[in-house]
Design goal:
The chain contains nine helices and five strands; from the N terminus they run E-H-E-H-H-H-E-H-H-E-H-H-E-H. It is an alpha/beta fold. It binds 3'-deoxythymidine-5'-monophosphate and magnesium ion. The site of magnesium ion has 2 residues, from loops.
Length: 211
């Protein structure tokens, strides 16, 4: 199929807390834009929508929500963004996304009573990332960096279970990246990977996650 405009790539960052995802996402978008490549920073949860406001209150521990219910809100917060994401991707903008469905599944299924296959179901069919850049940090290095705040989930035991769950979701779109490097070293690696992914995505249709 020929296209008038080649599409942008969907590049997702995942990794444990304090692995540098937000910093690297921001630096990557800046670098791509400086190179004249259309790119936009995106993040989940998007706390600015009506659903996002509920999620944010939950994370700030201002309210309680049943575990399945909050899982579905996180997922709904992605689905509500899909029309806009698809519009941007097809008009040639690369999206650099800080957390995605993998966070959704890794965090929810770290709770008692929610299994991974149940957690994956509502995420099935979301736009499939062209690449998942997983910023990898040893538990020791992570705990040295960790400066957990007051948000829900910011505890070492919970984060260990999240890390185990991430491992169960790796597939051929995942690029494991050593996050113990300096910010600039890591950025150099990330940028090189992203440029390859953007080039490759041009000739491919966007897939559907977990179908
Ligand atoms: P940050 O805003 O610091 O990234 O923290 N989470 C995130 C979920 O439980 N499910 C999801 O679907 C997503 C995207 C991870 C957000 C916190 O919310 C968790 C940490
Ligand atoms: Mg956080």
């Amino acid at each position: 199929m020929s296209r008038l405009i080649s599409r942008g790539a969907l590049i997702v960052f995942e990794g444990c807390d304090r692995s540098g995802k937000s910093t690297q996402c921001k630096k990557l978008v800046e670098a791509l834009n400086n190179d004249g490549i259309k790119a936009k920073l995106w993040r989940f949860p998007d706390r600015d929508t009506a659903i996002g406001v509920m999620i944010s209150r939950y994370l700030e521990q201002k309210c309680e929500l049943e575990d399945h219910a909050i899982h579905l809100l996180f997922t709904a917060n992605r689905w509500e963004a899909v029309p806009r994401m698809m519009e941007l991707l097809s008009s040639g903008t690369t999206l650099v996304v800080d957390r995605y469905a993998y966070s959704g599944v890794a965090f929810s299924s770290a709770k008692q009573g929610l299994d991974m296959s149940w957690c994956k179901q509502p995420e099935v069919g979301l736009p499939k990332p062209d690449a998942v850049l997983f910023l990898q940090l040893t538990p020791e290095a992570a705990s040295e960096r960790a400066d957990y705040g007051k948000e829900r989930y910011e505890q070492p035991e919970f984060q260990d279970r999240v890390a185990d769950n991430y491992k169960l979701m790796t597939d051929d779109t995942w690029k494991m990246i050593d996050a113990s490097q300096t910010i600039d070293e890591l950025h150099t690696v990330v940028r090189a990977v992203a440029l390859e992914v953007i080039e490759k995505a041009k000739g491919q249709d966007i897939g559907q996650l977990w179908t």
